[in-house]
Amino acid sequence: MASSRFDSSSDEEAESPPTDTQPLRIDWVDLSIIGYPNSVGISQMPGCKFKNNWRNLKNDLETMTNAGIQSVYVLLTTGELRKYRASQLLDEYNSSGINVHHYPFPDGTVPTVDIVVNFIYDLKEDLGNQRKTLIHCYGGLGRSCFLVACFMLEMDESLSPDRVIDIFRSIRGAGAIQTVKQYNFIQDFRKLREIYDQSPPDEARSLSR
C-alpha cells in the first residue's frame, strides 16, 4: 500500500500509537452579538501526528467539510508543520476547496500588532462573505484563542478583556490564553490598537508585547 505524504516511515508507523478516530472537536465562538453565531470555530491541529496525538487528516477534513468550513486560519510555523508530520497541510486544505490564511507565529508568543490587525481584517471579510471559518494552532488553546479574543475586543466594545478571556476558558478549558504575554496583550489590545492607528507604518509594524 502506498503511504500518504503525511505518514512517517514504515518503521515509525509500526511504533506509532493508534490513530485517534474521534471526530475533530470544533468549539464554536458565539458571535451572535455582531450577527455571526456559530461562524468561527477553534480546534486542535487537524491531521497531527506527534507523540500520543495521531489523527487521520482525511477524517478531520471530512469533519470540517460536514461542518461547512470554507476558510481556515493556520497559526503554526512551517517548522511546526514538519514536526507534526503535516508539511503539506496547507496544500491539502486548498485541494479540499478550503480557503487558507497562514498567520504563523511561535507557540506561547504574540505577533506584532499589524499582524493582529491584518488577521482581524481577513476574518471580517470571511464573515462578511458568509464563510464559516476554523482557526487552529497546535492545541487550539493559546494562539487561536488569543487572536479570536482580539477580534472580539475589536468588534464588541462592551466586552472587557477579562470577560473575553473567561469566554475562551469556558469554551476551550482553563488552558486557553496560555502565557503572560498573551494575557497582557489582550489586556492592552485596545490601547495598542489606538497607538497602531496613530503611528507611521514602520513604527506600527514594530508594536508588540
From TrEMBL:
Region (Disordered) residue spans: 1-23
Entry's Gene Ontology molecular function annotations: protein tyrosine phosphatase activity
Domain of life from the UniProt record: Eukaryota
Ranges for domain Tyrosine-protein phosphatase: 41-198
Annotated keywords: Hydrolase, Protein phosphatase
Record carries keyword Cell membrane: no
EC number annotated for this UniProt entry: 3.1.3.48
EC main group: hydrolase
Active site: C137
Tyrosine specific protein phosphatases domain mapped to chain residues: 117-184
PROSITE patterns associated with the record: TYR_PHOSPHATASE_2, TYR_PHOSPHATASE_DUAL
Entry-linked Gene3D superfamilies: Protein tyrosine phosphatase superfamily
CDD domains (alphabetical): CDKN3-like
InterPro entries: CDK_inhib_3 (IPR008425), CDKN3 (IPR022778), Prot-tyrosine_phosphatase-like (IPR029021), PTP (IPR050561), Tyr_Pase_cat (IPR003595), Tyr_Pase_dom (IPR000387), TYR_PHOSPHATASE_DUAL_dom (IPR020422)
Pfam families found in the cross-reference section: CDKN3
Entry-linked PANTHER family: TYROSINE SPECIFIC PROTEIN PHOSPHATASE AND DUAL SPECIFICITY PROTEIN PHOSPHATASE (PTHR23339)
Family note: Belongs to the protein-tyrosine phosphatase family.
Official protein name in the record: protein-tyrosine-phosphatase
Organism: Strigamia maritima (European centipede)
